[in-house]
Design a protein that fits this description.
133 residues; alpha/beta; Rossmann fold; five-stranded parallel sheet; 6 helices; 48% helix; globular
């Protein structure tokens, strides 16, 4: 394996699903700023997220739990049904509540509050892959 290929192979491939394009853009910038992460793609639609997951097989999928009609929880369930080992990190609006607990029951590995994404999300992504932050 060439050095550049090894570098890419060591990177964590991340798919981001968010309620708004603005949040997708912010997540994209955050992931691209991390030297050990690569963006698989972004979407604002839960159904598209499931298809993107199947096509790109990311190591970690970020899912906004504030998607319309609780479709973030449904997306977690569909992704986990297709790949029981899928690593998913939910993004919460507030402190832990029923939505966070539902995400964990659906198969999310962990959840991070949206107001803490820049400080907590990179470490949560690494931990979900078994890598030390």
């Amino acid at each position: 394996m060439k050095p550049r290929e090894k570098d890419l192979a060591d990177r964590i491939l991340v798919l981001a699903v968010a309620r708004t394009q603005l949040l997708c853009d912010g997540l994209s910038a955050l992931i691209r700023s991390e030297p050990d992460m690569e963006l698989a793609g972004t979407t604002v639609a839960a159904d598209v997220a499931v298809q993107m997951f199947l096509e790109s097989t990311p190591q970690v999928t970020l899912i906004d739990l504030d998607l319309p009609d609780h479709s973030g929880i449904a997306a977690i369930q569909r992704i986990r049904a297709s790949d029981p080992a899928a690593r998913i990190v939910g993004m919460l609006m507030d402190e832990w509540d029923e939505v966070g607990r539902a995400a964990l029951r659906a198969g999310a590995w962990s959840c991070v509050r949206k107001d803490r994404l820049t400080t907590d999300l990179p470490a949560a992504i690494r931990r979900s892959c078994g890598k030390t932050p």
